[in-house]
Write a structure and sequence with these properties.
heterodimer; A: 16 helices; B: alpha+beta; five-stranded mixed β-sheet; elongated
Chain lengths: 529, 344
């Protein structure tokens, strides 16, 4: 332990946190807010699964159910999954990994948090007061015709998008300009590659979402009619602009998950990555090809058959990049020295969930098969496996892996493994029945359903409770560990990731001496220092 | 094999000509992907056990995979994915154009019902009557928001989009009945857009086309019941007293009904007829004003038969208490919709 106080103790008081420009503290602020969003979105998931326990009314009316799934989707997508890993671990780790003292624009970084808070406040207020019932996709013309108030919610999502763009610009500039001496591009940790690719998508795609949302708000508030056929508009145009953002947004959610998994699988296997370049370049490949696949959400919309073919084959290509990564991560474990600790448990959960999600992704990219599955529970299960399962397990892997880094303390390992088992088991129980429901023809967003589907719905609801218990347990032991956890030391994992070159928790400016990088990251074959 | 896989994956029956080939592609992808998952999972599990951390064995060798191995993996996967693209896209193209001359049905969706207009025959709400063994081409549009016409048993789905026409076709293999579901979220009644495809044999279909519906011979109430089924009335109105999207018909005739404007009206022949032809004129309190007009759809004998059918649906208690439709104390029945209204 050095004499210099760490970033948690350098200054004190709530005011010092609310006005901080330290990327680490901003990362922690984001960590708290996105975790709160995860739990809030989870509450609505539990509620809507509860309503689906019986074929008819269980405890709410259809209008309330429609609001539940809208709240669940909007909160989870825009307030948790999109900002989750980049704003928390990205903010905290990226500058340290690059050997920098902070991000390029520290004040802008703090502004990004306040903009996020403002956006979240607008969205939640708008949804509760306005009763938005459009689903998170805001499809026109329903969203322009519904009596519920849509404009404040899309405005709030717009503001959240601004926060995303600010963070993205900050990371891009930081990566280009603040790398330590000797830190070439091919010595950057894999985490940085993926976060960088994410930032590029954020900056390029989010404005398109903003544009679409503004038009929806104007359609609803002023009857502008851009997407309203009665006024000469086109509802399908909305789907194109919406998915032009929202498909890349899937990669905004899952590339940061790749970032975390690439770090943790190497550290916990104590092994160099199976192929550094394959993992790094496939992130960039996904960022690029991900822009060209949006049409696969619209195979039955009446889009031309030629478009369907083009989007189908491009979607197959993007699956290749993901497959490369999965093979590389599994291959990394080969001849390693694997510590099966909580982060590793989540890595395994990630590989299973993302693997199944990816495989079903290839299946739904097959044009003919998608016709039966489109807008059924199969799709719900598919995207919950790939992007929710992927993002949450990676978020939890990162949270447990970097908990000692951020707070200098250890959490109780047994509780960590138990919670991981609950979350993983609960996830499988919730969503495997949903694949079967989709096969059987159960459409999504149904308040009532034919009785033949009930058994699978009951299983799925039971699974949601397991996930809930797992996350509740996690909250309890992590909050306990913040105060009572035993000190972790600087590097409890024996990790060679560059962020561990700094003390844990790091001092305000990260390093006692500015590091000079002489070799790549994850080089576990080097003799122990 | 087909039947085993179909049950294992919980797929619905294969009632159209495309369902069989489509499911076989489904099985092929399912089995291939599971084989890959099994191999990868077994490898991962083996690594976890075999290379678990042991005391004193922390150093690991530098190991990267040879380029040829990476290329094989990538090339193999890419070839497989592209094969599926080709097979899937070929089938998809087959879904676009019906093979040979098709029966054409115009489908209009609205919140929350389906209307079917057969190019050669009668129109109906909620029930689409088609022949077995002949291609049927649907031309779809929507009057309000986007809906999606989905028949799981046929493996077809097509959005109905306001302001444009989309098409899809199917060929039902055998006579039978198949559920229609709306697959695109369209508001409060999204899960309650009742619809059914009734597949008739060629002979029955011709008889249906020939206008069995206007004769109305025999028992008028029984004919009315058939009209109610054909026109989709029973999708929203129940006959057993439970609440549907619209008021139940049980004990409706002769009862006193509360309307949204606060007034009350006795459900007599005139009221029932008006509610079919101009449903928005008197909307029962507690129900959304969503019923379409049947003006020009129902013919006079059918309307009469429907009224007769509604009259015939009375519980024993109501029958005993009040034979007369004119207001008497016993008939302001608890089964009328005004009593349970107000929760929407």
């Amino acid at each position: 332990m050095s004499a210099e106080p760490d970033y948690l103790h350098a200054t004190r008081g709530l005011g010092s946190w609310l006005t901080t420009t330290d990327h680490k503290r901003i990362g922690i602020l984001f960590l708290w807010t996105v975790s709160a969003a995860l739990l809030l979105g989870g509450v609505f998931a539990i509620l809507l699964r509860l309503e689906l326990l019986t074929p008819g009314r269980t405890f709410v009316d259809p209008m309330t159910y429609n609001r539940f799934f809208t709240l669940h989707g909007v909160i989870m997508v825009w307030m948790f999954m999109i900002p989750s890993i980049p704003t928390s671990f990205g903010n905290f780790m990226l500058p340290i990994m690059l050997g920098a003292k902070d991000v390029a624009f520290p004040r802008l970084n703090l502004a990004s948090w306040y903009v996020y808070l403002a956006g979240a406040a607008i969205v939640l207020t708008g949804m509760v007061l306005g009763g938005t019932d459009t689903g998170w996709t805001f499809y026109t013309p329903y969203s322009s015709k519904t009596p519920a108030d849509v404009a404040p919610v899309v405005l709030g999502v717009f503001v959240l998008g601004v926060s995303t763009i600010i963070t993205g610009i900050n990371f891009i500039v930081t990566t280009h300009t603040l790398r330590a001496r000797g830190m070439t591009w091919h010595r950057m940790p894999l985490f940085v590659w993926s976060i960088y690719a994410t930032s590029v998508i954020q900056v390029l795609a989010t404005p398109v979402l903003g544009m679409a949302l503004v038009l929806v708000a104007l359609d609803h508030a002023l009857a502008l009619g851009v997407f309203d056929p009665a006024a000469g508009g086109d509802p399908i145009l909305y789907q194109h602009v919406f998915w032009f953002y929202s498909h890349p947004a899937v990669y905004i959610m899952v590339l940061p998950a790749f970032a975390v998994i690439s770090e943790t699988v190497c550290a916990l296997s104590h092994k160099n990555p199976a192929s550094y370049r394959a993992i790094a370049y496939s992130s960039v490949g996904i960022a690029f090809v991900g822009f060209l696949t949006w049409g696969h959400h619209m195979f039955v919309s009446g889009m031309s058959a030629l478009d369907v073919g083009v989007f189908s084959v491009l979607s197959m290509l993007v699956a290749i990049f993901s497959a490369i990564k999965v093979f590389a991560w599994v291959g990394t474990m080969y001849r390693g020295s694997i510590a099966f600790r909580t982060p590793m448990a989540y890595v395994i959960a990630f590989l299973v969930l993302f693997g199944v999600g990816g495989m079903t992704g290839v299946a739904v990219a097959t044009a003919a098969l998608d016709v039966h599955w489109h807008d059924t529970y199969f799709i719900v299960a598919h995207f919950h496996f790939i992007m929710v399962g992927g993002t949450i397990t990676a978020f939890l892997a990162g949270l447990h892996y970097w908990f000692p880094k951020m707070f200098g303390r250890l959490y109780p390992e047994r509780w960590g493994l138990l919670a991981a088992a609950l979350v993983f088991g609960g996830f499988l129980l919730t969503f495997i029945p949903q694949f079967l429901l989709g096969n059987a023809g159960m459409p999504r967003r149904y308040y009532e359903y034919p009785e033949r589907y009930q058994a699978l719905h009951v299983l799925s609801t039971g699974g949601s409770w397991l996930i809930g218990v797992g996350l509740a347990v996690t909250v309890v032991y992590l909050v306990w560990a913040l105060r009572y956890g035993p000190p972790s030391g600087d590097n409890p994992w024996g990790s060679k990731g560059f962020e561990w070159l700094a003390p844990s928790p790091p001092p305000p400016h990260n390093f006692h001496e500015t590091p000079v990088i002489t070799h790549g990251p994850h080089e576990y074959f080097r003799p122990e220092a | 094999m087909n039947e085993l896989m179909r049950r294992l994956l919980m797929l619905p029956e294969q009632a159209s000509t495309i369902a069989g080939p489509l499911d076989r592609l489904h099985y092929a992808e399912f089995l291939a992907l599971n084989l890959i998952a099994l191999v990868l999972g077994a490898a991962g599990l083996w690594f976890l056990v075999r290379y678990r951390r042991r005391p004193g064995r922390l150093a690991t060798p530098r190991f990267t995979y040879p380029v040829w191995l990476e290329a094989t993996f990538i090339g193999g996967l890419l070839a497989m994915f592209l094969l599926w693209f080709v097979l899937g896209y070929r089938q998809y193209l087959g879904f676009q154009v019906p093979p040979g001359e098709a029966v054409e049905v115009y489908v209009t969706a609205k919140q929350w019902m389906w209307k079917f207009a057969n190019a050669e025959g009668p129109s109906a709400v909620g029930v689409m009557t088609v022949p077995a063994g002949r291609p049927v081409k649907l031309i779809l549009t929507s009057r309000d928001v986007i809906h999606s016409f989905y028949v799981p048993d046929f493996r077809i789905k097509q959005d109905a989009v306001p302001g444009r026409y989309t098409t899809v076709w199917f060929e039902a293999r055998e006579p039978g009945r198949h559920q229609i579901l709306c697959a695109e979220y369209c508001g409060t009644g999204h899960s309650q857009m009742p619809g059914e495809v009734v597949v008739l044999s060629g002979r029955d279909y011709d008889a249906w086309l020939a206008g069995e519906r206007v004769t109305g011979e025999g028992d008028l109430a029984a004919f009315g019941q058939r009209v109610a089924a054909d026109q989709g009335c029973l999708g929203c109105h129940t006959v057993n007293g439970t609440r549907g999207l619209g008021p139940t018909w049980r004990d409706l005739y002769g009862s006193t009904v509360s309307l949204t404007d606060g007034s009350r009206v006795t459900a007599d022949e005139a009221y029932l007829t008006e509610s079919m032809m101009d449903p928005q004129a008197k909307v029962v309190a507690g129900y959304p004003p969503v019923m379409p007009s049947y003006l020009g759809i129902l013919e006079a004998p059918e309307t009469a038969a429907l009224v007769q059918f509604i009259k015939s649906i009375a519980s024993e208690a109501a029958r005993a208490g009040a034979p007369s439709p004119t207001a008497s104390p016993g008939t302001s029945g608890p089964a009328t919709s005004g009593a349970d209204g107000g929760d929407r």
